[in-house]
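Memo subject: From amino acid sequence to discrete backbone structure tokens
Action wanted: Derive the backbone structure tokens from the amino acid sequence.
How to read it: Take the token row as a discrete description of the fold.
Attached in line: The record itself begins immediately under this heading.
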Amino acid sequence: MRTTARSLVTVAVLALSVPARAQGDATSTPTPTVPVTPAEPPTGAIPGPVETMPNTADGGRFEFGSYGRLQLGSDLRGGTGRSANIVAYGDRIDEDSYAELELRREDRFAPNVTSKVVATLALFPPFFHFSGDATQAMAMRNLYAQATFGDWNLWIGSRMYRGDDIYLLDWWPLDNQNTVGGGVGTKLKWTTDETLIAAHVGMQRLDSPYQYETSPAPIPPVLAAQGGPGAVNVTTLDRPRTIETLKITHLFKHTNPAQKDGFKVILYGEAHEISAGVYTDNTQSPPAQTGLPADTGWLVGTELAYWTGQRDTFVQLYLRHAEGLAAYDPLAVPLTFANNRTTQGASETLAALGGNWETGPIGVLVGAYVRSFRDASTSPTTSEKYDEGIFAVRPQLFIGERWGLAFEGAFEARRYAVIDPQTDQPLDASEWRFGVIPYYSPSGRGSYKRPQLRLLYNLTARNQAARELYPALDVFSQRPVEHYLGMGAEWWFNSSSYP
């Protein structure tokens, strides 16, 4: 995942050499994308128009798009500023830098037959001018081909596959797959409404002893006689997690096209499976083997969204519940298990709220959730059983057409099923966060107008229990108040849309 800066320059030059999309072109999904951890532009709740593409006779086209944020800050004590969140999905005022460069090819072969091939390269900090290290951490976030036939679309590849987000929390509460797989979708048209149906199957096999292992083994005798190495590594544990998803979105529309407001309901589900295997500990003599049983899980959720059709004003409500293996992110490894070494008994339940309101010179962004997580272990006291939540709000004043002043406030809390030795009560960590963000927005006023260049100040006041979450040598364990003073820039344009 690390390569030289020369590779990055080559990619950027190739991408920037292609013509940009015309100002009036549209995206292809029913929900526009607005920003992300690591992220594409955030996905709002407003359905977008259908994409139009030139005929192949015109040569098709290449497109370049990008999402990015660059940020640096000081803790006002001589050190660098860093994120002070204590919940899984905290507010993004002091989040790390991140960027994506996207190159794609789009073609129309017939009036109802199109295709696109998408490649998105992600860049992670620290960057060369900060660290002095010429190597760059990278990841391929998208590499897939998609084709349409009438109202049907198909795709196969490696991709971020997700829906609407809560911008203030940089989080997709309902559906957020990082998958290698494929999917199919279609659209059902009613008198005024539309129903979108999308299904997908994909898998992950993490480089972890939970899913994958190689062990040394002697080469076959018939080959040993020819010389060469006496042993080779062979795969002895190979059990990818397979995930199937189904998403049904119903869009309620007005018969009068002059009415721009709308409403949508999403029903969503996942099924997770992982096969049995055997882990071999080759550090022992003789090697010790541990059986890993097959495991399963499921997830169901819904989203309700309303938008006014005016100035990106909308509200979204999310509800989700997961059991077993589905309670754990596909890119994470469970840390604790039930007595039978499965995740049966683990659960996650959450409710989340996101929205934006704009009128005159005022805008207000909101993000909030409450979440309960329980691991599969039978122990009643463990750090893997907790409840958490956050409420964040960012009111802002638009000054003229291109300047703004935003204020951000947030309260975060997490209660663990662990006894705090200081109080002899459950560990109840919490903190208040307050921020000020003056900014310049050359593309105009609005919560989702980008690019945006900003100054940042944030103050975090944490209680004693929150300080206990950090190691004793970490200054966060010693200080009740944290400062962050810095500057940042954020942009998004012409990124590929999500199904």
